[in-house]
Amino acid sequence: MKIKRKIITTKNKYHNLIEKISEIVNKSRSQLARTINTTIVNTYWSIEKYIVEFEQKGKERADYGSELMKAISRELSAKLGKGFSRSNLQNMKLLYLNYPKSQTLSGKLSWSHHCLLLGISDKW
User: Fold this and answer.
1) Is 58 left (phi over 0), alpha (psi -120 to 50) or beta?
2) Which of 37, 54, 100, 112 is a good FRET partner for 118, with 20 to 30 A between their CA atoms?
């Protein structure tokens, strides 16, 4: 009887160990995903800040835009890989123009969520 009880107790302790480790890893993964999403959104906001400032050179509106965005998209895609399509740059621009102060961006939303919200034309 003692041996069976010891085996059951050992199995329970082992199961608890696995559960605790799993909980720590899942919590860390979740925190990492939030950090990555926040970093991506802030990076994209900063990219478009530089592009808008370059485009407008202090003016309210740029003299040209679509050709510049195509060129930037082509150059960044060649240099950095995926993520710099013209449409993604346009979304970055919308993000920057709609949230000129990066502090107003939600760190709880992913880039995809921000893009979905930017697509809503109803501006309350």
Assistant:
1) left
2) 54
Residues found in the chain: 124
pTM, rounded to two decimals: 0.75
Distance of alpha carbon 46 from alpha carbon 40, whole angstroms: 10
Per-residue model confidence (pLDDT) at position 97: 87
| Spatial contact of 29 and 102, defined as CB atoms under 8 Å apart | no
What one-letter code names the amino acid at 56? Q
Q: Which amino acid is at 99?
A: Y
Q: What tens digit of pLDDT does each residue of 6-46 get? A: 677 888 899 999 999 999 999 999 999 999 999 999 999 99
DSSP designation for 57: T
Is residue 97 within 8 Å of residue 44, measured between CB atoms? no
